[in-house]
């Protein structure tokens, strides 16, 4: 009977579970704060560029900037889908798009200009580049994807944090947003006929993008 006294009571187990939960929640908050701070770094750089173009009177290659952080549910699902463990260390090592910034540009050439300007900055380290404009996906999707690393300075520590930057024209973003909605509104397999129609729309939009840029260049030569 005396040995039973050393066993943990139900209350003790509950307290331990609560402590573990609070520790995990606090650690997750800390990690997400780093990703939010990394997004701020990129947004600040783009905001400064915006202001520079306005002050100098040059045409602005940035139309709008959007950002997002993946939800815990999305993070867990993506790790499982890729066959990685669902843990804090696994998400920071294996996922590049927890923090995302989307830059919408007027013209295709603006995408490459903004990319070059950002990558010239010494604290923006390029880890990965996928040019879906030069090489569109099978679906017709077009965009420039960059995975970069930026430093986040805290009171006593420095962290290098990954951010995915997507650069699109207004037309590319229009197609991608609608295509995303259409795909996620149905739980059934998308028919091949719909896939072909979506791809045809993407190609039409790409041609319009090119034509609009050619018109813009022509107008610039007249000034």
Task: Considering the chains and any ligands shown, give keywords for the structure.
single chain; flat; 223 residues; 5-stranded mixed beta sheet; alpha+beta
What secondary-structure arrangement, pairings included, does this model have?
Elements: H1 10-56, E1 64-69, H2 72-82, H3 88-94, E2 99-105, H4 108-119, E3 125-131, E4 144-153, E5 158-169, H5 170-185, H6 192-222
The helix/strand class is alpha+beta
As a whole number of angstroms, the C-alpha radius of gyration is 23 Å
User: What percentage of amino acids are in beta strands?
Assistant: 15-25%
Could you list the spans in which at least 5 consecutive residues all have pLDDT below 50? none
Going across the biggest sheet, name each strand in turn.
1-2-5-4-3
Query: Average pLDDT across residues?
Result: 89
The largest sheet, given as strand count, sense and whether it forms a barrel, is: 5 strands, mixed
How many extended strands?
5
How would you describe the oligomerization state of the chains in this entry?
Answer: single chain
Listing every helix as H and every strand as E from the N terminus to the C terminus, the arrangement reads HEHHEHEEEHH
The gross shape turns out to be flat
Distance between the termini: 96 Å
Give the helix level as a range of percent: 55-70%
Number of helices: 6
């Amino acid at each position: 009977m005396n040995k039973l006294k050393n066993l943990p009571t139900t209350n003790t187990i509950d307290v331990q579970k609560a402590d573990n939960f609070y520790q995990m929640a606090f650690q997750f908050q800390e990690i997400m704060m780093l990703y939010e701070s990394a997004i701020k770094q990129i947004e600040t750089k783009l905001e400064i560029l915006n202001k520079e173009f306005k002050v100098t009177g040059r045409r602005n290659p940035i139309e709008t900037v959007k950002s997002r952080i993946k939800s815990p549910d999305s993070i867990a699902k993506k790790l499982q889908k890729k066959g990685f463990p669902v843990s804090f260390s696994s998400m920071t090592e294996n996922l590049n798009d927890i923090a995302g910034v989307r830059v919408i540009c007027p013209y295709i050439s603006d995408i490459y200009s903004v990319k070059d300007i950002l990558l010239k900055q010494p604290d923006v380290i390029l880890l990965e580049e996928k040019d879906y404009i030069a090489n569109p996906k099978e679906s017709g999707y077009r965009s420039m994807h960059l995975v970069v690393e930026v430093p986040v300075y805290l009171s006593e520590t420095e962290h290098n944090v990954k951010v995915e930057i997507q650069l699109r024209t207004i037309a590319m973003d229009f197609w991608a947003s609608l295509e995303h909605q259409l795909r996620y509104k149905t739980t059934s397999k998308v028919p091949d006929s719909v896939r072909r129609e979506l791809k045809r729309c993407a190609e039409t939009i790409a041609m319009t993008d090119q034509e609009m840029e050619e018109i813009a260049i022509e107008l610039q030569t007249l000034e």
